[in-house]
């Protein structure tokens, strides 16, 4: 067992330090060290858990729910941290939508992280094959009216340019 596996078991599987310590013969002190060293992994798992927990129990999420929280995290971790449509990088979104200094604001505080998006929203199914991570702008723009192909062809390049220009302007000011 390593740090990442410990954090996955603890945060997606709900295993206690004691259960993991007993099962793998690892001192609790080592587990505490891994916890303290694993902030980046913990944040990724936390985000995955938020996406999973916000949809669990909904019929359209049943394919992911059948896989379970751990496998959903594995799917999430394997996704590039760029919008699946326009390609904007998540680190840029974090600065653009920063609550204190970002030039872009949303009423519900969304935008700083990539969101779970259905490629074919007409199917209403959240599954590994039908989902990707998308920025707030693309996720809200692409709708039941606009197909994935149409969004990629007509809108995603313009959204990417808009967000990149905003990001460059932000860096020129700072």
UniProtKB/TrEMBL annotation:
Domain of life: Bacteria
Protein's recorded name: Uncharacterized protein
